[in-house]
């Protein structure tokens, strides 16, 4: 395992897919390098602007031809990720593709086919860690997207790591989170103690883990409003205009004065610059003519909140959906995506950290939208509002601004800073406070894009949760990292960041050695070699020779099969040779037991001329007035010859003598005591029974005489 751990998240939205790459120190290195403060903090997640890449359109457009999603869409994103991550770290890098609103509206069959193709393509073309496609490649509900965003915002602001620095009163130190895309909008926050107890069943239990293993637990309310993103809200708005009149030319107060735009029956704008090569233009249902009356625009967007819908579980905010009462004394919200782009890209150019102020914002929007379209076009060419603002954005911004204001203040109920009296509240502010960072985000609402130069994205929240889950728990009883229903312990619907953990990955020492720490393998085998070498040195030369001979005999036995000429005694194994526990052994030869009643075997048996040291002999039970001699096999005297060159069967000291066949299972043996000589001769009948052996006949001729 290297110094860094990497993670890749593909945010598959309705308009396109963006790849995000993150990295953090692996858990061992992080613990070694962390200060006392950092040990009590979550893992430090790093990213870089060049590590992100977005392509259009979204994967939902591949519903009719899912097989093209890999080569035509994912290939560019995965190739970009592989260029940023060291090759040796790719197999340990988890890959996630999490789709949002665009994929939610696809038919179920098409959705499954597209996701399957995504997983198959990633597995076949990369080595990214992708163990469970149901977890790593999926369409996440809006609530999960909102929860990840809540984690990211609080992680960057510091609500998790430095709770004392973010005391909002009443023991509250986390921030609420608001997100709005093209198709949906989300809200996530921790209600005050009273509301949390009252609506406990509506909350999500979420657990994180700091570097030192400390568990952090929060109970968060999160919900999503599908169809309340800016693009779908605009479509609903245009449909309402079309339904209100049969005229082909309709006044639109949410467009700059003098701007004319054709729209379809579905509420989509028709681009007048569409070429014939791109296909025929869609049929226009009507033409909208801008009037630039922003106050009227606000009035006409209010019904889109659908606050009149029945609330079955009180209280509700919009669309009849239940939301616990928000205490703006302690619930301070940060808003991202459209909340940031619509409030800052045009109207706060050059003031990136300026706090949102309703009065100032509405004045600037009203000033912009009341201009005639020709004046706005000239300003765009001069980059009056920055190089990112083009005609499409300028055409849409008036409706978007109206929708943001309606959602924030009429829908969610955020106090209108600069207009409404907030006396007695902790959130009292001046009309405009330029530095939101210095304020500590204590306004009821603050639009942000980056915090500490890091983009606030729900994908970051996903990685924070995953990195946190990789930190080992301090004990077996510690609860897992993840989220689920607000019940004690691990609820049935609990979601683990990387899928359900497998026991062998955390409980097996061998798995940690060979999979999680492959660099330790060479050291492991070197250690084994050293231990074997030391063991061989301790054995000594004689025992090593015995072991070598035993291995050689074992090899020959396997090679030559059941040939009786080459069988060795089964009872004398390697252990017997090493430790001298076998019977009648020699350092130079091993003998087999031969049945002398078998004439053929006896004839084939050749007796070696060997002397045995009598000092190592042991006495066995008497048999026909004779005793069997045994030897340890550590000392085998060489055969001595007399001056005539014939073999001598007596030791030179004249004190001990052993017959040539002693200890070989060839009949009774002669044993020599230390004080006298005991000699023995075989009967002529037994000698003759072995006369067919040439060596025996030659070696025993003088004895016969």
From TrEMBL:
Gene3D superfamilies attached to this UniProt entry: 3.30.420.40, Exopolyphosphatase. Domain 2
Compositional bias segments (type: Basic residues): 689-699
InterPro entries in alphabetical order: GDA1_CD39_NTPase
Pfam families assigned to the protein according to its UniProt record, in alphabetical order: GDA1_CD39 (PF01150)
GO cellular component: Golgi apparatus; membrane
Stretches the record annotates as Disordered: 611-640, 675-705
Active site: residue positions: 145
Keyword terms: ATP-binding, Hydrolase, Membrane, Nucleotide-binding, Transmembrane, Transmembrane helix
Domain of life from the UniProt record: Eukaryota
Keyword Membrane listed: yes
GO biological process, one term: CTP metabolic process
Bias type Acidic residues, positions: 611-623
Transmembrane segments: 521-540
Binding locations of ATP: 182-186
An MF annotation (GO) of this entry: GDP phosphatase activity
Keyword Nucleotide-binding among UniProt keywords: yes
Family, as annotated: Belongs to the GDA1/CD39 NTPase family.
Protein name according to UniProt: Nucleoside diphosphatase
Species of provenance: Clathrospora elynae
